User: Which sequence fits this backbone?
């Protein structure tokens, strides 16, 4: 397949490498062209140039305004691709609006946010939460299978519901990571080695993905970003906007995360509750 790709950042670079390794031809547009250096892809000067005549387009950018710009570029192409796989985490309402704009030009819009971080992107083991037309999703499968684990790919329903699933996940990421830091920190102050506490809990009913995958870095004092605090706060905002019901646990996690430097990994929230190595974030 010929794939037009927008956004070769922390996540996108690994995705592009796996697309190329699977035999796909990739044309990439980047606001910072140097990010394409060393990638197995052809640099395009604009979004429209990257996606023109492609079999599908893929996008992995930051938030709703960025995706609006991407869709504008896709629809400006002389021959836009039949399917846009949008992997950014944005407001579901915006995705639905953009899907309508795309449909008017004959482009099927899929919201396919991912989970797994840069490590999963590099390994090709990302989870995909997909919203949109089933036939369009079928057309996108060769690309999705190159970038992710088919066992972790879910069709959640119409456009927007893939994003709802991602926001549910990230609200839990925020709450569980903050609660884990609080619990380990209290144990630490009571004399329990937090590394031992982690081992105990992983063999007990308090086990979690955060404990197993995030907290080895946290306990080493490494807060180099895999997923920045800034982006997690952005996702918590979209989660809070899903309806008007109170979400006190998400709000509590958000309040803690706002005390963390925004460009550090969200695991740096543990510094509020624990004594950890280093002082500069990793």
Assistant:
């Amino acid at each position: 397949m010929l794939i037009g790709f927008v956004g070769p950042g922390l996540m996108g670079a690994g995705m592009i490498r796996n697309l190329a390794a699977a035999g796909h031809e990739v044309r990439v547009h980047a606001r910072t062209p140097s990010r394409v250096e060393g990638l197995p892809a052809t640099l395009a000067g604009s979004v429209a140039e990257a996606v023109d005549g492609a079999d599908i387009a893929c996008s992995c950018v930051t938030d709703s305004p960025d995706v609006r710009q991407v869709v504008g570029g896709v629809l400006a192409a002389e021959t836009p691709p039949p399917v846009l796989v949008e992997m950014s985490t944005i407001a579901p309402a915006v995705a639905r609006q953009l899907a309508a704009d795309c449909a008017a030009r004959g482009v099927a819009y899929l919201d396919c946010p991912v989970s797994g971080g840069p490590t999963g992107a590099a390994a090709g083991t990302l989870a995909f939460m997909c919203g949109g037309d089933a036939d369009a999703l079928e057309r996108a499968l060769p690309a999705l299978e190159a970038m992710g684990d088919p066992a972790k790919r879910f069709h959640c329903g119409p456009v927007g519901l893939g994003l709802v699933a991602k926001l549910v996940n990230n609200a839990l990421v925020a709450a569980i990571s903050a609660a884990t830091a609080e619990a380990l920190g209290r144990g630490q102050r009571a004399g329990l080695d937090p590394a031992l506490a982690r081992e105990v809990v992983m063999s007990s009913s308090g086990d979690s993905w955060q404990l197993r995958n995030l907290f080895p870095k946290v306990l080493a004092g490494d807060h180099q970003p895999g997923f920045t605090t800034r982006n997690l706060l952005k996702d918590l905002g979209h989660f809070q906007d899903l309806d008007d019901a109170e979400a006190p646990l998400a709000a509590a996690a958000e309040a803690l995360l706002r005390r963390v430097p925004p460009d550090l990994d969200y695991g740096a929230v543990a510094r509020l509750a624990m004594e950890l190595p280093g002082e500069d974030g990793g």
